[in-house]
Amino acid sequence: MAGSSDQPESENRKARIAVLISGSGRSMVNLHNRGQAGTLDAKIALVIASRPGIAGLDRAAELDLPTQTVERKAHGDIKAYSQAVFDHVRQAKAEWVCLAGFLSLLRIPSDYAGRVLNIHPSLLPAFGGPGMYGVKVHQAVLDHGAKVSGCTVHLADDTYDTGPILVQKACPVLPGDDADDLAARVFDLECKAYPEALAACVDGRVHVAGRVATVDMPDSTG
Fold first, then answer.
1. pLDDT of the residue at 218
2. Annotated active-site positions, please?
C-alpha cells in the first residue's frame, strides 16, 4: 500500500531495464550511475548473471540492485536458457534489456524484439562474432595493425554481434599500445555510447528499416 508513495513520481516514470552480465559489471554500474544522476531516464529493475561468483554480482549488491543468476549449463539448449532468462525479465517488468558483457547467446522472444541492446568493444562488423569478447577483441585489433578502434551499441538479434547499429564511437590505436591500454581507451567510449543509445531507444528516437537504424538527435529545446 505504501509502495507507490515511497518512490518519487519521477522515479516511477523511468524506463525499467534488465542488465545481463557475465563479468565485472562495470557497464551495469555506469548505467546505474547515469540513471541516479538524472542523465539517463532509466533505472535498473534487475541484474541477471550468467554464472555465480562474478564481480558484477558483488557490485550489484553494493548498489542494492535485485539479482538473479541463470546458468547456461543448467539448461538443455539455447531455447530453454533464453526462456528462463526472459521469464525473469518479464517478472521484473523490464521494458528494455541491456547486454553488458553477457557471453551467452540468447534467442530473443517476439515480445522483446527490438528491445534488446548489446555493446561490443570494436567498430562492428570488424572484430566481432563467436569467441570475440573482452581482451581478445583488442588483441585482434592490434594484431591486424588497425589504426582506429572503438565500440558499437546495436540492437541484438539471435546471433553474435549483428543487428542494426545504433551508436559507434571511435578512438585511435596508438603506437606502443597493448591490449589493456586499448581496452581502457575503448571502455571510456563505452561509458558514453551505451547511455546514449539506450536514451535514444527509451525516447522513441530509433527507426529501423532492415539492417539500418536511424537515430534522431535528442530534442534540446526543453
1. 86
2. 120
